[in-house]
């Protein structure tokens, strides 16, 4: 991770001075996009589309 600090004594990571994140909730985007550049997410009965652009940015649409 770039510009990240990892605490060995706890399960938190601080990325770019943001709030600490529980490592159990940390998902590498490459694991989501193994099959292509689009992922369908079902959240509370609603479908969302997460796309990875050619520039490597993420776009979430309902």
From TrEMBL:
<protein>
    <submittedName>
        <fullName>Hemin uptake protein HemP</fullName>
    </submittedName>
</protein>
<dbReference type="InterPro" id="IPR019600">
    <property type="entry name" value="Hemin_uptake_protein_HemP"/>
</dbReference>
<dbReference type="Pfam" id="PF10636">
    <property type="entry name" value="hemP"/>
</dbReference>
């Amino acid at each position: 991770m770039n510009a990240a600090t990892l605490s060995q004594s706890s399960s938190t990571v601080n990325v770019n001075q943001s709030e600490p994140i529980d490592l159990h909730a940390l998902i590498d985007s490459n694991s989501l996009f193994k099959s292509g550049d689009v992922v369908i997410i079902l959240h509370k009965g609603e479908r969302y589309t997460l796309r990875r652009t050619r520039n490597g940015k993420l776009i979430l649409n309902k």
